Amino acid sequence: MFLELAEFCRGLLSHHPSVAIVTWASQPALESFVARLGPALREEHSDTILSRLSAAELDSASFPERLLRCLERRDGSRRCLLVYRIEPLAPAAARILNGFRERLASQRAVVVVIRENRKRDFVTDSPDLMDWVGTSAARAEDLGPAISLREIKASIKELERRHGMSSERFLKESTQGRLESSEDYWLWNELIAMRAAHRAEKQ
Amino acid sequence: MIREMSAQEYLQRLKAGVSSCAAIDPGDRVRLPAKRIDTSNAWFVARGLDAENRLFPDDPEAHSPFNLIRGGALRLQVRVREIREGGLRRVEVEAYRFCVEGLPPNPNIVRCLRYDKSQGLPKGTGWDDCLRDNPQHPHAHMHVNFREPDANDLRLPTGSVCPLLLLSAFGFWYLSTYGT
Fold first, then answer.
1. Each residue's pLDDT tens digit, A36-74
2. Residue A144: inside a domain, yes or no?
3. Alpha helical stretches, state H, A52-148
């Protein structure tokens, strides 16, 4: 189980052959993971190249052709192959990847992304590949971007609007014991603390 | 409350605690969204967070509480910070909110139960220098409500409690009260 993209990449690139499976439940989490994987891999190993193989427009005949083309590249030892959007042909894709297992070892690493509710079938259809996956499994939602200062500020703004007071006034009233506890107030306090930590870190 | 482990390890234990908590609906036990707070070594964990905030935009489960098997819901929010000193990793639970609401009738006649610890000491009105806390609003406290589910005036100081221990203790009481 990985809770952070950097840790995931470190684990992925720390052994060979390396195959990981990443599941997703929400589309934005999938898109975010696909967009951020390349830079995160390069952060860990600067010469890593990310090859993306999306099966969205492929059928079970063209998928192995495209896969083979990716695996035959000469610089495979520097490449991490990302296979995603395989849900439309999941049973066939699982069997094909399982059959190509030895060839997958030519890559520095392979990441297979599959929707959470299709994982069980995928695992059943690729037993040998799963031996290589081992504990290299993660959820795209867990590997999402960190909470940014922008998101913290936006959440604070929403609370200010909802309660009709500024954060400064909230803090003042809160320390004077004039406010009743509530879900919002606990979170508001937390957000202000996160913002302060953020600012302190940047200085 | 500081423990000799990494934040990653603590959060994994918390997730394992959730997945083994038999009081939580089995289909609901799988998710405990956690996110690192950008640029700092802090993590924020949430289930049942206010739907309007933007901290977990791609994770709807962060906004829905855990459903309990015999009725009621659990909201859990935790913030932990990793401290690195001389190659050692330690984790501090800086803040938490553990809230159980909508409990079905029980011999303790409890409707709502909440443990809170927020960032910073609540100085200001009521602050007592000798106690180093505020009796009107203790830093770490619990609320127990028998009638109104959202009454807040009873705040009993608790000291800092490990959310994992809270989860286990509550799970034990819930199962022994309502059955499995």
1. 999 999 999 999 999 999 998 898 899 999 999 999 988
2. no
3. 62-71, 90-99, 101-104, 119-125, 127-133
Q: For chain A, how many structural domains are there in total? A: 2
- The yes-or-no verdict on residue B39 having pLDDT over 70 is yes
Residue A177 has pLDDT above 90, yes or no: no
| Contact between B61 and A199 (Cβ < 8 Å) | no
Across the interface, of B55, B77, B124, the residue whose CB is closest to A176 is B124
> Nearest CA to CA, how far is B113 from chain A (Å)?
13
* Domain co-membership, A126 together with A45: yes
DSSP per position, B63-90: GSPEEBTTS-EEEEEEEEEEEEETTEEE
Q: Residue A183 is nearest to which of B42, B50, B124, comparing CB atoms?
A: B50
Is the Cβ pair A183, B99 closer than 8 Å?
Answer: yes
Residues of A in contact with B95 (CB under 8 A): 190, 193
DSSP A13: T
Tell me which chain B residues have a C-beta less than 8 angstroms from the C-beta of A10.
none
**B144 shares contact with chain A (CB less than 8 Å):** no
Among the partner-chain residues A144, A186, A187, the one whose CB lies closest to the CB of B59 is A144
Clarify whether residues A131 and A154 are in a common domain: no
Whole-structure pTM value: 0.82
**CATH classification of the domain holding A28:** 3.40.50.300
- Mean pLDDT across chain A: 89
Same domain? A56 vs A125: yes
CB distance B68 to B170 below 8 Å: no
Instruction: State which of A139, A171, A190 marks the end of a domain.
Output: A139
- The side-by-side arrangement of strands in the sheet containing A49-54 is A49-54, A79-84, A109-115, A19-24, A137-139
Q: Is B121 inside a domain boundary?
A: yes
pLDDT at A4: 82
| Residue numbers of the domain that contains A65 | 5-139
| Domain enclosing residue B17, as ranges | 2-49+77-178
Q: Helical H runs in B24-92? A: none
B137: its two tokens: 């609003």
